[in-house]
């Protein structure tokens, strides 16, 4: 099975490490982490990765301050990339303002196999087609 290149951008170290371990160690993982960053500013320090992500997992905490600017920079770095916004239920209403910039919301408590299925499904959709 071909693996999907993903990037993870979150300022929560535990979340970043949990996703990294999950995608690298789980036998059914459909993804390979090719980008890890704590912020947009730290992306340039990860330039040793040759591969570009096909899918980005973004933490909602990073996008609320200046949503439009954040997503315009993401689009500049990674045009036509599928974006899943990691957001907990308590902040979902506030996160809905990001709806036009992302492909889907992602609960940090989502079952592992459901997460893998979601990633596989988005890998089949052309990246420029957003689903809401």
Number of helices: 5
Separation of termini?
Answer: 28 Å
How many beta-strand runs?
A: 5
Low-confidence stretches: 128-132
Helix content: 25-40%
SSE topology string: EHEEHHEHEH
Q: How would you characterize the largest beta sheet?
A: 5 strands, parallel
Structural class based on helices, strands and sheet pairing:
alpha/beta
Strand numbers in spatial order across the main sheet: 2-1-3-4-5
Observed structural traits:
132 residues; alpha/beta; five-stranded parallel sheet; 5 strands; 34% helix; globular; disordered C terminus
What would your notes on this structure say?
There is one protein chain. The chain is an alpha/beta fold and 132 residues long. It is 34% helix and 20% strand. It is built from five helices and five strands; from the N terminus they run E-H-E-E-H-H-E-H-E-H. The chain has helices at residues 13-25, 60-63, 67-77, 92-95, 112-124; strands at 4-9, 31-37, 55-59, 82-86, 104-106. It has a five-stranded parallel β-sheet with strand order 2-1-3-4-5. Strand 4 (82-86), helix 4 (92-95) and strand 5 form a beta-alpha-beta unit. It is globular and about 35 Å long. It starts with a strand and ends in an 8-residue tail after the last helix. Residues 128-132 have low confidence and may be disordered.
Short description:
With 132 residues, the chain is of the alpha/beta class. Helix content is 34%, strand content 20%.
